[in-house]
Amino acid sequence: MAAIPDKDAKCRAIEKMIAAGKGVTESCREFGISEKTLYRWRKATQA
Q: How far apart are CA 14 and CA 26, in angstroms?
């Protein structure tokens, strides 16, 4: 599997956008990732 550059930074930025009231789908689109990818990243950082 290929490494994603700045994955943690992207995840944090998306989380901030969601906290500010933007939708999950819209926030993910701005970074070019799917919602499923975001949820996988969240799960990986929680483990």
A: 10
Task: Quick: pLDDT tens for 1-47.
Answer: 566 778 889 999 999 999 999 999 999 999 999 999 999 988 887 76
Cα gap 30→1, rounded to integer Å: 23
Model pTM score? 0.81
Is residue 2 in a domain? no
In a domain, 39, yes or no: yes
**Nearest C-alpha neighbor of 39 from the set 22, 5, 27:** 27
Domain hosting 27: range is 7-46
Kindly list the distances between the CA atom of residue 35 and the CA atoms of 31, 40, in Å, as whole numbers in the listed order. 11, 9
